[in-house]
Design goal:
Layout lengths: L3 E3 L14 H4 L3 E5 L6 E6 L3 H20 L1 H18 L1 H12 L4 H25 L2 E3 L9 E9 L2 E5 L7 H13 L2 E5 L6 H13 L6 E3 L4 H10 L2 E5 L2 H13 L4 E4 L4 E5 L5 H13 L9 E7 H16 L20 H16 L3 E4 L14 E4 L6 H4 L6 E7 L2 H9 L3 E2 L1 E5 L2 H8 L6 E4 L13 E2 L1 E2 L2 E2 L1 E2 L3 H4 L2 E9 L14 H15 L3 H4 L5
Parallel strand pairs: 6-7, 6-9, 7-8, 9-10, 11-12, 11-17, 12-15, 14-15, 17-18
Antiparallel strand pairs: 1-3, 2-3, 4-5, 5-23, 10-21, 13-14, 16-20, 19-22
The structure holds NADPH dihydro-nicotinamide-adenine-dinucleotide phosphate.
The site of NADPH dihydro-nicotinamide-adenine-dinucleotide phosphate has 31 residues, from α8 and α9.
Amino acid sequence: MESGTAETSTAKTKASNGTDTATQAPDRIEVLNPASGEACGSIDVDTPETIAATVARVRTGQAEWEALGNKGRYHWLGKLRDWILDNTDQIADTMQAEGGKVRGETSTELIYLADLINFYGSKADKFIGDETVRPHSPLLASRKLKVQYRPYPVVGVISPWNFPMALALGDAIPALQAGAAVVIKPSEFTPLSLIETIRAWKEEIGAPDVFDCVMGTGETGQALIDNVDFIQFTGSDRTGRKVMARASETLTPVSLELGGKDPMIVLSDANLDRAANAAAWGGMFNSGQVCLSIERIYVEEPAYDEFVAKLTKEVGGLRQGQDGRAYSCEVGAMTSPNQIGVVEEQVDEALAAGARALTGGKRADGPGDYFEPTVLVDVDPSMKVMRDETFGPVVTVTKVRDSEEALRLANDTRYGLGASVFGERTRAESIGRRMEVGAVNVNDVIVNYVAMDVPMGGWKESGIGFRHGEYGIKKYCRPESIVITRMGGKREPNWFPYTKVRQGLVGRLAKAVNARDIRRRLGKRG
Ligand code: NDP
C-alpha cells in the first residue's frame, strides 16, 4: 500500500539519513534530496503483514481485470498515459527532488512511458492474442490446436533508484496490459514519484484496484517475492542473486535486469565528432547512473588522439548542478548516497595506479552528492574502474592496435548488457555482431532502450530475461495449450484395451508417417 508523503521542496538532494535502514528496518524512512541533503518526503515502511494484505487485495481484482481484454485494459492504461502527459511538470519536480536529476533527464522518462503504454496497448493482440497452430503431423489432423496466453495473476516489480518512473512503471505497464495485477517495491531512495502515480491511478483516474506499491528496503523486496507469482527485478547483480535465491523457495519465476560495463569501440573511419559527442552523452547521461552507460571506450590508434581531444572538450564543458525547471545543466547529482563512494573509490584507485584524469577526477566541491564528469586515460584492464560497474559520470579511454584487439578487450568482462560501435556502417555492424551483449548500437548509444520493438536485456551476469518487444509482455504470461479433438469414435486406437491388431495398426501408421524413405514407410527395414 502506498504510504508516502511528498513535501513540496525546492532544493534538496538525496543523501543517506545516516542509518543502515536495511538492518534497522525503521518504521519510517526520510527521503532526502541528493543535491542538497534536505528531506523532501518520507515513507512508512510496510510490514510482512501489510505486504501480504496488499498483494491479496489486488489479487482479488485480477480476474475481472483480465476479463477486460486487451482493449479494456488499454483503456485504463491510456488514462494513465494521459495523466502522465497532463502532469509532466509536477512529476518532474518530484523526480528532481528525490533523485537530484537535471530537468532535461526527467522528461525523457515520462515520454518513454507514454510511448510504452501505446506500444503495448496497440500490439497486445498481436503479441499475446490467441494463436491457432497447425498440427505438425497428419496423425493429429483431427485436432485443433490453440494457445491462449494467461497472465501470472500478481506480478511483483522491484525497481532501482536511477530511473524511478521509467523502470518501476516501465516494467509494470506490460504486466498490467497482459492482465496481471501488479505491486511495485521502489527503491527507498526514490519512492515519491511512484507514490504520486499510484495515488492518481486510484483517486484521479479511478482505475480498477489492481495496481499498488509497497514501501521499504531490501526486506520489503524479499517479502514481496514471497507473495507474488512472478518477479521482475531491476538492480545490481549482487541483489539479483538474492532475489533469485529467495524466489527459488517458492519456485517463483524471475526476470532479472542487472548491471553493465558497456564498451564502445571507435574505429578509425568513424565520424569522430559524432563518436565523441555520443561518448560524452552515453557516459554522463543521468550522471552515468544508467545500466547502459558507456563506461569503457576502445579507440583504434589512428583516431585516438583526435577522439580523446574532442571527448575531453565536450565533457569538460558540461554544466553540473541543480537547474529546477530551467534546463540549464547537463549533469545532476549522484542519487544514491553509497554510489558516490563507489565511484570515488574506483577513480582514486585508478589514479593511484597510473591513470590520468583529462577532466574531472574527483567529488565536486560544495553541497550535494556530485562527482565531476571524468575522462580517464592510461587505464589498465586490471583496475576496478575497468572491471566493476562504475555507475557514475566516468568514462575510460584505451588506445587499441585494431578492431580485433578492441573486440577482445570489449568482450573481456563478466557483464553483457549493451555496447556501441562507431565506424563505417558495414564494418561497424560486423564487429557489433561479434560482441557478447544483449544489444549493440551502431553509430549510436543507448538508443536501443527506446527502440522498444526489439528485446532489451543482458547476457552473462547482466541478467536473465528481456524487456521490450514481444518477449517483454509474453514473459508475464503462461501459455495454456488447448487441444480440441473435432471428431472421434468411441475410442482412439492407442487407448485401452491393447490388442495385437490395434497396436500393429498404430505401429504401421507411425512408421508410414515418420519414415523418410519408401521402404520403411511400407514397413520394411532400410
Ligand atoms: P540494488 O540492487 O541495490 O537495488 C534494487 C532494488 O532492490 C531496490 O528497490 C532495493 O531496495 C531492492 N533490494 C535491495 N536488497 C534487496 C533484497 N535482498 N531483496 C529484494 N530486493 C532488494 O540496485 P540499485 O538500486 O543500486 O540500482 C543500481 C543497479 O541497477 C545497477 O547495477 C544498474 O546497472 C542496475 N540497473 C539495471 C538496469 C537494466 O535494465 N539492466 C536498468 C537500471 C539499473 P532499496 O533501494 O530500498 O535498498
